[in-house]
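User: I'll paste a sequence; please echo it back and then give the predicted structure.

Assistant: Echoing your sequence first, then the prediction.
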Amino acid sequence: MPTSHSSANAPPPQFPQPANLTPQDLTRGKQLFEAQCAPCHGIQGTGGKGANLARPALKHAACDAALFATIQTGIENTGMPGAWQMTDREVWLVVAHVRSLGRVAVDKLSGDPVQDKALFAAQSCGGCHIVDGVGGNLGPELTEVGARRSSERLRQCLLEPGKALPDGFVMIRACPTRWLRLGGHPRE
């Protein structure tokens, strides 16, 4: 598996960004994305194991050159590997496809932020998850999770929390000591 590096250390591309892409170029960029990126980012780029890329602005890629570097070298200390197997031209084609994903309409969801915040507190979610710098660190950090993951992915994580865990996390269920069993006998 390729090593993830910081995009700040990326070498300059040997092949310049294409000025005018043909429909065939865009189709090829989509094919490359589907083969190399969709397993983590989703076929529509709306996220999953990887970040939601169907957004106009990307955290690690404010411009096309930064997106190129991120794709080519990965993001250190994340699950985002570098695309060592793609040529510079192929990376540029993926850049074009990813930018097209950001032009998709944002999925507006109903809900009450005040009620949702109260539910988060009532369920003690902050014991494991950090939001805006506050909370525990046993679970994934949730600040801006709605911008990083699709609504379908978030729904799955809430309804079936152990089904789709990020790399490096395991599902635990905390329960009172009296509920624990050792060898089939209650442990008191």
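DSSP finds seven helices and four strands in the chain. The longest strand covers residues 130-131.
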